[in-house]
Write a structure and sequence with these properties.
The chain is an alpha+beta fold. The chain has helices at 10-25, 30-33, 48-63, 84-96, 132-135, 156-162, 165-168, 188-203, 213-227, 267-273, 276-285, 288-295, 299-314, 320-326, 330-333, 338-361; strands at residues 2-5, 40-43, 105-108, 115-118, 124-125, 153-154, 170-174, 177-184, 241-250, 255-264. The protein binds zinc ion.
Length: 362
């Protein structure tokens, strides 16, 4: 059976990205599986046992837990009360679809909207099984999960996908507490590539302390534009957002709580930073201050900043403190380089203005 997966809610999308990494271990070529419109087409040849082994191996390295050989005792696991058998059943249903039941009822999937004929005892419902950590707080944060309630039915096509969502999330550290993020977009191709790049950016030493997730999202788009040999399809950049699942310390209750925040960059800014010349200049300059001016659409500030630096570079007695406080990267503020940095910032402003003017004419 061929499975066609379309972009949906972020939780499901993270599941699809996770699923692709499971199937990649079994030989799937991810690039062949995603079409130009951002949908995933899967012809699955691996057996449920092979898929389970890949899933379990990846789960072990992501969460440090394994369901292999487990027939109980998993109440506290990420996916509560699951066993090797129950997960293999989900995989089997994903590959083959539901078998006919004697007296079936029609259930509508709360995720994809598909109607499936099955019985109540066989049906899967959205509950803690899908993530102990997130859904445990249903009482305190009813909307933590986008309004799906634990009574919602999940069809055989979506069930195993949701069981892969933890493999789509990228682990990060935030003030010593664990957090995870996912870049959500309207195309799986865009999501696959952006999340891959974000993972690399987070993993690199020099980016360890990016606290602002919006900056990380912008840097990922810039990296994409600079490195991937095709431009982001415009429609697929319209709703790029970063989903940040973080833990916060509740002082009053003295407990750690889960929180989910959504951060995005306005579409007109995404268009700017996915312009090849602008992206390459932004990453060449590499200063967060400059990136923030662009993200906040404070373009005239770029001219002020550029001219101020230019003046200092030409002065006989440059104001070292001002230069030091406004630039962070060593090569940018090194003696003799400040003028060059100023030039790049002014050039960046020029490119942005040119692009904005062109858009106005269209
Ligand atoms: Zn479904």
């Amino acid at each position: 059976m061929k499975n066609v997966l379309l972009p949906n809610h972020w939780f499901y999308n993270a599941g699809v990205i996770g699923l692709l990494s499971v199937l990649e271990k079994g030989g799937l070529n991810i690039y062949d599986a995603i079409d130009d419109y951002g949908a995933v087409h899967l012809d699955i040849f691996s057996s449920k046992d092979e898929i389970f082994d890949s899933w379990d191996e990846l789960t072990k390295s992501a969460l440090n837990i394994s369901y292999k050989g487990k027939s109980g005792g998993t109440q506290k696991y990420y996916y509560s009360n699951q066993t090797e058998k129950s997960i293999k059943e989900k995989i089997q249903l994903f590959i083959k679809g539901v078998t006919k039941s004697r007296k079936p009822s029609a259930f509508t999937c709360g995720i994809c909207g598909r109607v499936e004929l099955t019985t109540k005892s066989k049906a899967a419902f959205f509950n803690q099984a899908y993530s102990n950590i997130l859904l445990a707080s249903e009482q305190t944060f009813p909307n933590l999960y986008w309004g799906l309630s634990s009574n919602d039915f999940v069809c055989s096509n979506c069930d195993f996908v949701l069981f892969c969502h933890h493999l789509g999330l990228i682990p990060t550290q935030q003030g010593g507490l664990r957090s995870q993020l996912f870049i959500n977009a309207p195309s799986f191709k865009t999501m696959f590539l952006l999340n891959k790049l974000a993972k690399e950016l987070i993993g690199s030493e020099k980016n360890q302390d990016i606290k602002d997730k919006r900056q990380l999202l912008a840097m990922t788009v810039i990296e994409y534009t600079n490195r991937i040999n095709s431009t982001l399809a415009l429609w697929s950049t319209m709703n790029i957002e970063i989903v940040n699942k973080l833990q916060i310390w509740n002082k009053e209750k003295r407990t750690v709580e889960d929180k989910i925040e959504f951060l995005s960059i306005p579409f007109d800014v995404v268009k700017l930073i996915s312009d090849r010349k602008i992206a390459s200049l932004l990453s060449d300059i590499g200063e967060f201050r400059v990136l923030n001016m662009v993200l906040n659409r404070e373009y005239p500030k770029l001219i002020d900043f550029g001219y101020r630096l230019m003046r200092e570079s030409l002065s006989e007695k440059p104001n070292e403190k001002l230069i030091n406080d406004s630039l962070f990267i060593w090569k940018n503020k090194q003696y003799g380089n400040v003028g060059n940095t100023a030039n790049k910032i002014l050039k960046l402003y020029g490119l942005i203005e040119e692009k904005l003017n062109k858009e106005k004419l269209l």
